[in-house]
Amino acid sequence: MSSQPCKKESLVPASTDQIEDDVCTSRANCNDSLRAGLVIRRTGGGCSLGFTARSSGVRWALTAGHCGSGTMTNWSTAGTPIGPLNPVNAIDSGPVDASAIQVTNAGYAADTLGRIAISGSTWVPVKGRAHTMSFIWVGDVVCVSARYAAPATSGNPCGVVTKTSDAAVRGLTRYEGYDPCPGDSGGGVYWLPSSGRRYAFGLHSRSTAGCNTTPRKAWFSALPRFWPGLAYDLA
């Protein structure tokens, strides 16, 4: 059965999806497992982790394409290595702003669950993802799980899709109602229907002013725009 839900999902009564607790204390201090919204770092920079996926037996951790440095870099979270980002796996052009870190840490590579950070110590499962652009609708409520360096934010703020392809901004998908902050690039953007389940939609790319100021507009790179062969981790 396909993991892609019918859009009537938005009419389903509230879900009982469990919020899981673990030993993490913050998005910057969490090496228990990979999940959308963690702080990730390389020498000279840092971003937010998006969703995880697999291809040909290799696990990948996604973030924004512009987070790369143009050279081979090693990424980590909370001081624990994730793996390398080869510049050939970073795209920042047109509607695509995505890069794929190869997960070579054996503990992370063996994990099969797709997770979204809700706070420093809790996460929820990824239940599906947008397979095509026709799955993303204007009016969809979307939330972003990212590092929130300034100001500190509890939970994941949400907005509403207002353009699925914004010609004025490279064809990226626009959402309004929240203006992410520096360091939030690459964070996981997900659809949140009334059922309470979460479906991966894309990776945060950019915002209007840069830290929750008016006008609150932001853009994400939609998953159907890049690497169609990826099998996203679900839970």
TrEMBL record:
Gene3D superfamilies: Trypsin-like serine proteases. GO terms for biological process: proteolysis. One of its GO terms (molecular function) is serine-type endopeptidase activity. InterPro entries: Peptidase_S1_PA, Peptidase_S1_PA_chymotrypsin, TRYPSIN_HIS. PROSITE patterns: TRYPSIN_HIS. This is Trypsin. It comes from Micromonospora olivasterospora. The lineage of its organism: Bacteria, Bacillati, Actinomycetota, Actinomycetes, Micromonosporales.
